[in-house]
Amino acid sequence: MVDPASDGGADSTVEAVFDAVAATAPEIRAALPGRRVESGTENASGESVLAGDLYADELLGEAITAVDGVGSFVSEEREAAVDAGGGVGEGAYAVAIDPLDGSSNLRSNNAMGTVVGVYDAPLPATGRDLVAAGYVLYGPITTMVVADADGVREEVIAGDDGGVERSVVETDLRLPDDPLVYGFGGRVPDWPADFTDYAREIEDELKLRYGGAMVGDVNQVLTYGGIFAYPALVDAPDGKLRLSFEANPIAYIIERAGGTATDGEQHILDVEPEGVHDRVPLYVGNEELVERLQAALA
Ligand code: AHM
Ligand code: MG
Predict the structure, then answer these.
(1) Domain CATH for 87
(2) Domain ranges, residue 118
(3) For residue 155, which of 6, 16, 41, 196 sits 20 to 30 Å off, Cα-Cα?
(4) Is 29 in the same domain as 165?
């Protein structure tokens, strides 16, 4: 655990991490038009990487490892953790990021984002060790959602390489009680039968909104209420999304906003990881919808 008195305050370290993320956002956004092509490399999960992924990873890596109180940094695009000094367990945080989530949307010019989890334990750790989480959404405007013990806020981020302007537009984001939208990833023929049955029910109740970037799709759930899933697939029982960089931060944010998240059997935040690149099925949104789904999968 971080001793708040030892470093100017645990909260100040967390805020400094999100200051760093916000400060890089206009620069990342400005660099995207020229970085829609493949970089020619694969990441630790064996997926092809776009030049935009690498650029975002580099900028965020520099900015986050420079924050006082950050002991280690892990990224979806890096095989191993980066030692940022201090050492987790000796009073420093571990920060996990997905630099450009949904980057395959870059080619078709659709939404994507950056996901950030701030853990107060060495990684791999469970999501119960998160002290804050957030994401930047590169949509028609750039927004940043940040969740911590106090709740969930949304900021609009503007600016360029010269500087960043931030305005808080929501201080206490909550999932609406009457859910409106759903978005489920993966090919329908690859879904297990019990998940398909649940999807058939949901189609009668909610409106489909799927954009192919978790950050964008989850932001719709946060805005309108509903459920997002990247399910276990017949040939990929762990689904596609990564626990440390994607599922845990999203589960933390949605839980703070009044919703919940499961892997089908247990709360996402309770899933015990074996390694930082572990994948996990993710079902997240309004409590009633997620609980019904977990019962359907049992
Ligand atoms: P990425 O981090 O490599 O971009 O992959 C994660 C993305 C998620 O944003 C999204 O939910 C999912 O992959 C979409 O996958 P698919 O294209 O198979 O629908
Ligand atoms: Mg991702």
Answers:
(1) 3.30.540.10
(2) 12-170
(3) 6
(4) yes
